[in-house]
Automatic annotation (TrEMBL):
<dbReference type="Pfam" id="PF00919">
    <property type="entry name" value="UPF0004"/>
</dbReference>
<dbReference type="GO" id="GO:0035597">
    <property type="term" value="F:tRNA-2-methylthio-N(6)-dimethylallyladenosine(37) synthase activity"/>
</dbReference>
<dbReference type="Pfam" id="PF04055">
    <property type="entry name" value="Radical_SAM"/>
</dbReference>
<dbReference type="InterPro" id="IPR006463">
    <property type="entry name" value="MiaB_methiolase"/>
</dbReference>
<feature type="domain" description="MTTase N-terminal">
    <location>
        <begin position="9"/>
        <end position="129"/>
    </location>
</feature>
<comment type="similarity">
    <text>Belongs to the methylthiotransferase family. MiaB subfamily.</text>
</comment>
<keyword id="KW-0808">Transferase</keyword>
<feature type="binding site">
    <location>
        <position position="92"/>
    </location>
    <ligand>
        <name>[4Fe-4S] cluster 1</name>
    </ligand>
</feature>
<protein>
    <recommendedName>
        <fullName>tRNA-2-methylthio-N(6)-dimethylallyladenosine synthase</fullName>
        <ecNumber>2.8.4.3</ecNumber>
    </recommendedName>
</protein>
<dbReference type="InterPro" id="IPR023404">
    <property type="entry name" value="rSAM_horseshoe"/>
</dbReference>
<dbReference type="InterPro" id="IPR013848">
    <property type="entry name" value="Methylthiotransferase_N"/>
</dbReference>
<feature type="binding site">
    <location>
        <position position="18"/>
    </location>
    <ligand>
        <name>[4Fe-4S] cluster 1</name>
    </ligand>
</feature>
<feature type="binding site">
    <location>
        <position position="168"/>
    </location>
    <ligand>
        <name>[4Fe-4S] cluster 2</name>
    </ligand>
</feature>
<dbReference type="InterPro" id="IPR038135">
    <property type="entry name" value="Methylthiotransferase_N_sf"/>
</dbReference>
<keyword id="KW-0411">Iron-sulfur</keyword>
<keyword id="KW-0479">Metal-binding</keyword>
<dbReference type="InterPro" id="IPR006638">
    <property type="entry name" value="Elp3/MiaA/NifB-like_rSAM"/>
</dbReference>
Length: 453
């Protein structure tokens, strides 16, 4: 039983958008933990609420203002009970619209961008005197100012590269995340060691343009992503490596080869193409053609025929004609994707494409998106269904949906549920796939006896 106010401070951190944001949110939780805040999933009991926001499309950005509206009510209710609540808006909306957030939403105490969140404790302290905005791109290395990682779980993200110099005509990332910067191999290795020591068995190396990685190697020379992954393969206990998100123009020969010669690199490639029309790709400033993309995929499949291919698509980029959209449909039919994300074009303030006056009508965009998604869904289903009957290696991540079950992922990133003791969590198990559901596969542990039968 407790009397009066719970002395333990609590923090609620919510992340929107990409894996990089999820990583940053985890690091902010680590920072707050070092300041004595326990993590909570119950926002109403939080003394600090952090919203790590996404600016990539209009819908994502709009969520911030509706969420802050709900938090304002909560903050007022807690204030009536004598409890203080600090509201922090972090992430890419913070970066892009910092001052506007303060002006529009009086309940917000701190606005902090993705490159300055290591200063969160100072900013929180300062917020008791005045509301603060920090959207600098500081010179100091954010990562070296963060506390050691507290790992949770069998899989973990690790940021190796941030920012983007590509300036695709539709995209806010180069403005919100800034120029491309790669961390050194030594810094990444030491974070990877901490992850593995904490029980992580699969690391996903992340970056806005992860395959443009060019960090300082241990010998002083610049290392590529393939070289970095090679430098991580001997970490005892590390079983798998993945990376995302990549750009076609940075798909170097050694990276393609890594899918064949580095046993830790999983047979999965997320390589956004955006459109199957070279004219649209040019208008998007992607700097490659549809045929370039097809050639890259052919080379990857030469090395790793079973690779699961994933991509991002935008329909209704300004000026996209019916015939150009059909080229996207044809590319998808020809290449077949195991999974994909597809979006209607959303004009973003400050990007070159937002200036264009040849918008595709909303109804046309909706129809195109629905046709594309129907095709991509059918391909995803076919890919999943084709696994039935095969034996796959599953990295067990957690307890399953039902008692006695565990769940984990295949090399192709498909979730499988099967019966096994929880002591298998963190290990690789051979599993026979017996059934394919809409979001999961169901399997049976392949014991030696079953294998011999
Ligand atoms: N409109 C629609 N989709 C976008 N993306 C990025 N910017 C926009 C935009 N303005 C999509 C791209 C990118 C993914 C992360 O989000 O497909 O690869
Ligand atoms: Fe955005 Fe293009 Fe950079 Fe990807 S490569 S983050 S889509 S500008």
């Amino acid at each position: 039983m407790t009397y009066g106010q719970d002395p333990l401070k609590k923090a609620f951190v919510k992340s929107y958008g990409c894996q990089m944001n999820a990583y940053d949110a985890g690091r902010m939780a680590d920072l707050l933990a070092a300041e004595g805040y326990a993590a909570t999933d119950a926002v109403e009991e939080a003394d600090v609420v952090v919203l790590n926001t996404c600016h990539i499309r209009e819908k994502a950005a709009d969520k911030v203002f509706s969420e802050v509206g709900r938090l304002r009510v909560l903050k007022a209710e807690r204030a009536e009970r004598g409890q203080d609540t600090r509201i922090v808006v972090a992430g890419c909306v913070a970066q892009a619209e910092g001052r506007e957030i303060l002006a529009r939403t009086p309940a917000v105490d701190v606005v902090v961008g993705p490159q300055s969140y290591h200063r969160l404790p100072e900013l929180l302290a300062e917020s008791h005197r005045r509301r603060v905005v920090d959207t600098e791109f500081p010179i100091e290395d954010k990562f070296s100012r963060l506390p050691a990682r507290r790992t949770r779980g069998v899989t973990g993200f690790l940021t190796i590269q941030e920012g983007c110099d590509k300036f695709c005509a539709f995209c806010v990332v180069p403005y919100t995340r800034g120029a491309e910067v790669s961390r050194s191999v030594a810094a990444i290795r030491s974070e990877a060691e901490a992850l593995v020591a904490g029980g992580v068995r699969e690391i996903t190396l992340i970056g806005q343009n992860v395959n443009a990685y060019h960090g300082e190697g241990t010998n002083g020379a610049t290392a590529t992503l393939a070289e970095l992954m090679r430098a991580l393969t001997d970490l005892p206990g590390l079983l798998r490596l993945r990376y995302m998100t990549s750009h076609p123009n940075d798909m170097g020969g050694d990276l393609i080869a890594a899918h064949g010669d580095n046993p830790l690199v999983m047979p999965y490639l997320h390589l956004p193409v955006q459109s199957g029309s070279t004219r649209v790709l040019q208008a998007m400033n992607r700097k490659h053609t549809a045929d370039d993309y097809r050639r890259i995929i052919a080379r990857v499949r030469d090395v790793r025929p079973d690779i699961a291919l994933s991509s991002d698509f935008i329909v209704g980029f300004p000026g996209e004609t019916d015939a150009e959209f059909e080229e996207t449909m044809r590319l998808v039919s020809d290449l077949t994707f195991a999974s994909a994300f597809s979006f209607k074009y959303s004009p973003r303030p400050g990007t070159p494409a937002a200036e264009r006056t040849d918008a595709v009508p909303e109804s046309v965009m909706s129809e195109r998106l629905s046709r594309l998604q129907t095709l991509l869904d059918a391909q995803r289903h076919a890919f999943n269904a084709a696994t039935v009957g095969s034996i796959v290696e599953v990295l067990v991540e957690k307890a399953g949906r039902h008692p006695g079950q565990v769940a984990g992922k295949t090399p192709h990133l498909l979730m499988v549920q099967f019966e096994a003791p929880v002591s298998t969590i963190g290990t690789l198990q051979r599993v026979r796939i017996v059934r394919c559901g809409s979001n999961s596969l169901f399997g049976a542990l392949e014991t030696d006896a079953a294998a011999a039968a």
